[in-house]
Write a structure and sequence with these properties.
Porin, mainly beta, about 170 residues, about 70% strand, 1 helix, eight-stranded antiparallel β-barrel
Length: about 170
């Protein structure tokens, strides 16, 4: 009986691990820094996710991402890692996901003689929607994030919206 139970547990674990998948993504985004006299900032974003666990219709794993919004006197370069959950219904090619991130951000906000700059701890909440357009290729229809950078001396909570492509490795 113990062997049968052991084999059943091993089979269940191997089925969950067999669902593991890696995705590489890149895109372009726009960020509202919510600072006086600072317009929307634009830039690239890229990352890698690994869905380590999967059960029917739900995948979970980690995401490592970077985004580089703005340049010069207004910029936010963020490097974050987070757990992620993705719903994968298989019936329709839409896959919504949610993430909670933590990492560091290098921020520069310069307005005349007033300048705030630093590399500080940041965290963010992300929600998005991927649409499968070809086997192993998804269009990241929308990726929305709210971020907070701690101990910067100003209340810095940018929001960002982006779009791009995802290549899922088998």
């Amino acid at each position: 009986m113990k062997r049968v139970l052991g084999v059943a547990v091993l089979m269940a674990v191997s089925c969950v691990v067999a669902q593991a998948q890696v995705g590489l993504y890149a895109g372009f985004g726009a960020s509202d820094f919510h600072q006086p006299n600072v317009n929307w900032q634009y830039g690239p974003m890229a990352g890698l996710y690994w869905n380590a666990l999967g059960v029917p219709f739900v995948k979970a794993g980690f995401d490592l991402r970077g985004d580089w919004m703005g340049r010069g006197d207004a910029q936010d370069d963020s490097y974050l890692i987070e757990p992620r959950v993705q719903i994968h219904p298989h019936v329709v090619p839409l896959m919504p996901y949610a993430e909670a991130l933590g990492g560091v951000s290098r921020v520069v906000i310069a307005q005349g003689s007033a300048r705030t700059a630093g590399t500080k701890f940041s965290y963010a909440l992300v929600a998005g929607l991927d649409l499968t357009i070809l086997p192993h290729i998804d269009w990241r229809v929308v990726d929305y994030s709210w971020q907070r950078v701690e101990n910067l001396g100003i209340g810095f909570q940018p929001t960002q919206i982006s779009t791009g492509l995802v290549v899922r490795l088998p």
